[in-house]
Amino acid sequence: MLDVGFAAVERQFLDLSASTTLPVSQLINLFLKSRKRTVNGTNYWNLYATYFKEHIPHYILLCRLFIDLTGATVRKQCYESFKDTYPDSYQDLLLMHEEASLLGSTPQTIAQCGQGFQKHYRRVIQILESASIKSGFEAAVVLCGKVVNEDGSLSYSYNTPGAAGFWETRCRASDDAIIRHLKAHV
User: Fold this and answer.
1) Separation of alpha carbons 169 and 35, rounded Å
2) Phi/psi of residue 108, each to 5°?
């Protein structure tokens, strides 16, 4: 019974995605946000702490107009002001800031590099799947790390359903062979 209900809900989200051109994942997040619910355990306070640290001079000047800077709760007051200024988009802004920070900085450890790679390749797949569902786009993608000796395990090959078997039929190579070819050129 639950499977039937979930399938109906999924169809509704797919139809809404097709009519609004928004990815299903974004629609689900917007739906949950509009109902004051959340699925992921993202701690926006921690994301804001990084944002605040990078923008202290500018942000304090901006906040000085609205808050009392004499107390010990300056960051909290600035965070509340930030949420009030961007009530519908502050979470997206903080997530994009975090992603931009990750892309612009070099991870310090191999583990951090691996986590960043996993996060970004999942995001790429999400975008490709959404484009495939909404617009009928198909893709075959290969991703790998740029440091040969350290990023040996950071590689991934992905095909949307319409491009399944692309590497075998067009390049006469398996996923592993395509990954090796890409690594040879990085």
Assistant:
1) 47
2) -85, -30
What is the length of the chain? 186
Residue 109 has φ and ψ, to the nearest 5°, of -125, 165
- Helix/strand/coil percent split, the chain, to 5: 65, 5, 30
> Tell me: the pLDDT tens digits for 103-141?
666 656 777 778 888 888 888 888 888 888 888 889 999
Residue with tokens 């900085």: 105
Q: Which amino acid is at 22?
A: L
pLDDT beneath 50: ranges in the chain: none
Task: Extract the tokens encoding 72.
Answer: 């010990």
Q: Which residues pair with 143 in a beta bridge?
A: 156
Q: Are 9 and 16 in contact (CB under 8 A)?
A: no
Cα dihedral 74, 80, 86, 89 sign: positive
Find residue 159's DSSP bridge partners: 140
SS3 145: coil
The alpha helices in 110-171, defined as continuous H runs, are 110-135, 166-170
Tell me how far apart the alpha carbons of residues 166 and 139 are, in angstroms, rounded to a whole number. 9
* Torsion angle of C-alpha atoms 59, 74, 50, 30, degrees rounded to 10: -80
**CB 180 within 8 Å of CB 152:** no
